[in-house]
Design goal:
Layout (H helix, E strand, L loop, with lengths): L3 E9 L6 E14 L11 E3 L2 H12 L15 E6 L6 H15 L7 E7 L9 H35 L8 E7 L2 H15 L9 E7 L18 H8 E8 L4 H9 L7 H4 L11 E5 L22 H11 L4 H6 L6
Parallel strand pairs: 1-5, 4-5, 4-6, 6-7, 7-8, 8-9
Antiparallel strand pairs: 1-2, 2-3
């Protein structure tokens, strides 16, 4: 059975040895049994989404059943959405790193699926990447809508046969501008599903270095049908990890939305209310001396062991007050 999973709206390059930077009108689905994952020959295509679903369902059906008291041990199917300035090889390499750190070995959280969108892979293409990110939201929405229908079907089946219940939680890790893709996808998916308020599709959503406006969730507990409202309603809990040391997002704030701060650099806008299921963590202390300074603060969340452990605890569903009292949220 496959160990790695990939969904993409990137085009396939003519020489058929990599995914390109163009945007395809159709999603394609891929699996791999071993790395290196940035090597094209490691990946095998699936005919369509039904084949991909069958393979993934085959793996998740072997997840252990957990009791309500042990819900933190329940395995995940996690979507990882990468950020801007990532060509396909970069995205696959980052995905492989996350899989090795969080989704392998005896402490594996479950299965992780890469969603890679056509980021151009050059810093000078920042604005073009933002355009591709917005357009890719609809593609990711297709994935979320499919998973939503799958979840509902499993819940209905469990009423008739408890053993048919889904054994996995759904979670998302989004990095940088991948959060903008997720933001746009949530709005489309929420609208398609008649804006459901009673079903949480995403159990845990971790927004790392989010390149989105920091008042995204400014509607608070009211329903204004905004992007933030959609994401908050589709998620059980959203955690935004940020640091003021992130100079990449400092540049981002100057390129668009004049004067508005980035969520991944400043945290939630404290002048507006946030939904009760949304919170943030300042990770600056993890990236400062005497701890080893990472090469890139913007992606340090995946490189520094203590922030990786924080992400693990968040995904396991540990209560935020418990995380704070245990010192997991501070260096």
């Amino acid at each position: 059975m496959p160990n790695y999973w990939m969904i993409t709206n990137r085009t396939i390059e003519a020489n058929n040895n990599a995914l390109g930077n163009g945007r395809s009108d159709a999603l394609s689905y891929w699996t791999a049994t071993q790395g290196p994952l940035n090597k094209w020959s490691s990946w095998k295509p699936c005919k369509d989404i039904s084949v991909f679903q069958e393979k993934l369902a085959g793996v998740t059906s072997n997840f252990p059943e957990t009791s309500d008291e042990d819900h933190a041990d329940q395995k995940h199917v996690t979507l990882f959405v990468h950020g801007f300035n990532n060509n396909w090889a970069d995205a696959a390499g980052r995905y492989e790193q996350i899989c090795k750190a969080l989704y392998s070995g005896p402490k594996s959280l479950g299965e992780c699926v890469l969603f890679t969108w056509p980021s151009n892979g050059r810093p000078t293409d920042y604005l073009a990447d933002r355009s591709d990110a917005q357009a890719s939201g609809a593609a990711l929405a297709d994935v979320l809508a499919f998973l939503y229908d799958w979840l509902i079907d499993r819940q209905k089946a469990a009423v008739r046969l408890p053993s048919a219940a889904c054994k996995a939680k759904m979670s998302v890790i989004a990095h940088s501008m991948g959060n903008y893709v997720l933001q746009k996808a949530a709005q489309v998916a929420w609208t398609r599903k008649n804006q459901p308020l009673l079903v949480s599709l995403i159990n845990q959503c971790v927004m790392c270095a989010a390149d989105v406006d920091n008042d995204l969730f400014g509607a608070g507990e009211t329903n204004d049908k905004s992007d933030g409202d959609a994401l908050a309603n589709l998620s059980y809990r959203i955690t935004a990890l940020y640091t003021g040391l992130d100079e990449v997002l400092g540049v981002s704030a100057g390129l668009k939305h004049f004067g508005k701060r980035r969520l991944g650099r400043s945290g939630l806008d404290q002048s507006v209310p946030a939904p009760d299921n949304v919170w943030d963590v300042d990770c600056s202390g993890f990236f400062q001396r005497p701890a080893p300074k990472p090469k890139s603060i913007h992606s340090a969340y995946f490189d520094v062991p203590k922030t990786r452990d924080l992400i693990r605890q968040i995904l396991r569903g540990t209560d935020r007050m418990v995380l704070e009292s245990r010192g997991v949220t501070t260096a």
